[in-house]
Fold each of these.
Amino acid sequence: MNWQAFISLIQSDAPDTYFVPTTRHTDKLGRIVSALFNTKGGTIVIGYDRINSHLTGYMEADPWIHEFVANHFGSDAGVSVAFLFRSNKKIAIVSIALSPNNQAFEGVFYCVDDANKISPYIPASMPISDNSLHERQLTAIDHVMNHTFIKNSDYRELFSVSHKTAHMELAALVARGTFQTLGSGRSTRYVLASSKTFPSEHRLKVLFKTNSQLSYDVYANALNMDMAQAINDLQYFSDHGIIQKHIENNDTYFTLISESIKT
């Protein structure tokens, strides 16, 4: 691309072109890459501040963008980069092709919505039924409940799967509200999401895999919630015929009675 073509690009207001002033904006860059992979492809210009209309420069080595995409998405397939030099500044023009598979950034899937904004979404092809979870994912949830978090490397070691498979299956658990992410890049940890987003019946399914009965204390501690929330949750499940309450030695316990959520 020559300078005149670049001027035409920044003046065209093309809906599939996005601008990232510097590589320090890694969160913004990752969301855009995910959205373009998942929607229709497009172009990312790194090193030009469109709001203030001036060159800021791409300050990394040429392979950096390929390494960034490979580290976060498992592969840099579908990514090509051209560089333009002007006033001692380097600009990267990154072309992203539509991916055949849904691609998540830091565990969240993004798309380009109807207003050409980058928005999180859950792919239509992603199953949302609790019963549709892969056995590896159920085991990963147990792992997190016992060890606080899981990383991509832990997932690969536990199940002997590729980086990409681990990434996709962990990202699916984030998209459905089971996990949330802490950290970024190779330091990303997956932890249990807050009780507001964790699917209620799935939560019980996981807990009853390792407990024949639940008390308020066990439930609250396992899900890191206060006692009031635990009491409300368990009362809800009892009212809906999912669990049965009984008293032993003046302590309250609950057992699973709903066949629909047994493993």
Amino acid sequence: MSTHAVLEKISFKDIAGIAFGSFMTAAAIQFIIAPAHLVTGGLSGIAIALHFTTPYPIWLWYMVLNIPIFIAGWKLVSMRFALYSFVGTISLTVFLGLLETLPVHLGINDLLLAAVFGGALSGCGVGTALMFRGSTGGLDIIAGIIHRLWGVNFGTTLLVTNGIVLITALITTNIELTLYSAITMVASAAMVNNVTSGFRTKKTVIIVSKKSEYIADAILHGMHRGCTYLVGKGAYTGQVENIIMVTTGKSEIPRLKELIFQLDHQAFLTITDTVEVYGRGFRPWDEDDA
């Protein structure tokens, strides 16, 4: 895709969302995590650890550490994701520098509270940036590549890579603070998962019933939901059945179950989480998403 086409797809709403996410992450670092001598995940965690052992500020370390990541990842992600991530990196760097100068002291003396709340706020910021198709830079870019290629969610990738950060924290602090930092990372990864996919998670229901036609008609006209027939054959009975597959929101599951069992109280169904859904009635596919 040409540079002109990419520029046309850039949205002010996305830019504002990425900047807001960067602000939340910077606030978590400067007001909660760093004052408690904890570290968070990703390059920001390494930047905090280096700040503890050198006279240089967090924002400077974060900017320096991101340079090789952008060089390595520039051609491996979409141009828009790279541009949005650059915006996120600059925003986080600026906010880290600005918030560092403010005389704000929240007075959180409990390390566990600082770890949980700081991690949750930081993860909310990172997840918000990702939700607006960008990132706050650093390992988020690597996570974006892995998510695009293999479908691994961002929080899981970041949690795995944070082992390096914990080793750095152990060297620069002590075992107690390192363990609390691990709690920070878990809270952050959980919030990233919730923001990027958890709040959009759908349910896919597989229904096996001898009254599949009646149930499908009720789903189509009663719930105004699409469904699909899958032809299946019972291993024991050898009988061919029309199996119904329907994907819907979590809030509609109670109504769907009631509808099914009213028509066939012997129906067999399974309900599973579906992290991402694209297509008619759901999210449109954007081939430029990272």
Amino acid sequence: MKNSECTLSKETQDLLYRYFAAAANLYGVIEIGKLLKIYNSQNEPLSEEDFLSFVENMNFEGKHFCVLNQDDIYDDGSETPALEYEVLAEYLYFFEFDDDSLDEYEMLKNRQIGKKFCVLDKEQFLRYEDDCYFKKTPDFLEMRSFLRNETGLSKEDADDYADDIMICFATMPDNSDESVHDAIMISGIYNRDDVAFSHQKLEYLCQNVMYTSARLHVLLGHTPEEIFG
């Protein structure tokens, strides 16, 4: 993309940053051209020229996402059409595309093929600009109640583990039992030797939460229940 000055109002630019953050947190990766379509469907439409001038001048300091092209990712000299640059969530590029990061990026892209984006209404969509946001559904509250009341954890620790598990679900490769177990392991709760509780019950409750409530990147922001019924 060629450098050009962005003439959009500060209000519009601030709103665009919110859309980019929300898209990264809902989808993991999305082409900016597709994000523009989502934005334009919910707001006064922007021209491609104005949108691209904004992208060219974005400041990613303090953000948990970035916009990259294929050469940025593969360092192969390839050219990427401007609207096919991608918004990536931080976990996909945090290690500057070592082999593990590339594998995770390619796995996610491959598993998204053929799926449709979950486009929430504007108010719901923008809640996901917070990378720790998720909807506290009845299944989530039941899982959190178990951690609060049947594990010996303090309320604060129980809530932190419940939140961490829920946030981890979004980046899992599927909604399998293995992925549920991996998300729980990442939270660190199984490393606590000062509490005793039923791992089987926690994993059962987490399976329910993941199926009904977790918006997965591999499902382009859908919950498994929305896709599979």
